Amino acid sequence: MSVLTENNRPQLMDGMGRTIVNLRISVTDRCNFRCTYCMPADNVEFMDRDKLLTFEEITRIVQVVSKMGIYRLRLTGGEPLLRKSLPVLVAMLAAVEGIEDVAMTTNAFFLKQQAQSLKDAGLKRLNISLDALDQDKFTEVNRRDCLTQVLEGIAEARRVGFKSIKINAVAVKNFSESEIIKLVEMGREQDLEVRFIEFMPLDADKIWERGKVLFGHEIVDIINKKYPLEPIKDSLEIGPASEYKFTDGKGKIGIITAVSNPFCDYCNRIRMTADGKLRTCLFSTNEHNLKELIRGGANDEEIENKIREALVIKEPGHKINLDDFERPTRAMHAIGG
Ligand code: SAM
Ligand code: SF4
To answer: Given pLDDT bands bounded at 50, 70 and 90, which one contains residue 2?
Structure first.
């Protein structure tokens, strides 16, 4: 018997009593960028295509989890727009009973071509990664000279009517400082919420160290000097970002203090890799093989039981700040950020 929330949805709880409503689905580990904080510059070994879940398999799992209480989905990767016919998957997922929100995180390179069909298919929200507005800095961090295409992608997403667009910028010490005000001003001018994410130890090159993280409080200090900010109360209980509004009323920003003040106590999400492994934390060191189950002919109840078993042992929090922190073997592009 499942407990119902006040909205009459089933309530899915983990072993710590956190309510899980969000599934992030990686649709590929491939990417056309090589961001320094995520992928190696070259010689990347990608998953064989037959190892990826098909659209039907992804939808099957979503049908199961939607009955358990998950109603928000986010497509990610790798670069999700590299997955052929992605709008077809969006339409399949948006049609699943109980799913209220299908969102996507993208580097926006292919968004100019695909924004309209994604919108038509039922995609509701977009997070677009953009770390620098200076052309050289963009190329340095993304290892691709593609700033123009990304800006065109954002413009097209706005043109076709995406209402909620967030800009994600990874904050790296001695690199991001000069870009913060430029990104904030772009957000204020175009009514986009810019979110700065503290650099996490998920980079394939393993260059992460604490000294390379530009911390949330340092970012707030930089912004506050030019555009005074006021914290939005309890924002960390709603999503991963601590949100601040500009005191002049011109929008807000978010800071994801994944290292300095993680939101683990309020975590409401699980993840599925492109090859069908359920991960209960971004930093999980073990995975639960859903692909094996569905390709082995499991029924819905068996899939549900496997997910519930995984949720009982969902990690209380990540251990970046502890001595026994262990890096996941997968880098960010293969997990699905
Ligand atoms: N390719 C898409 C993109 O870049 O938006 C989606 C996948 S990417 C892995 C998802 C998000 O993770 C992006 O916003 C990216 O900036 C962020 N990210 C990747 N590596 C990170 C790291 N080491 N620390 C913090 N954020 C990271
Ligand atoms: Fe690709 Fe996104 Fe990773 Fe950059 S952050 S390399 S765009 S998957």
So the answer is: low
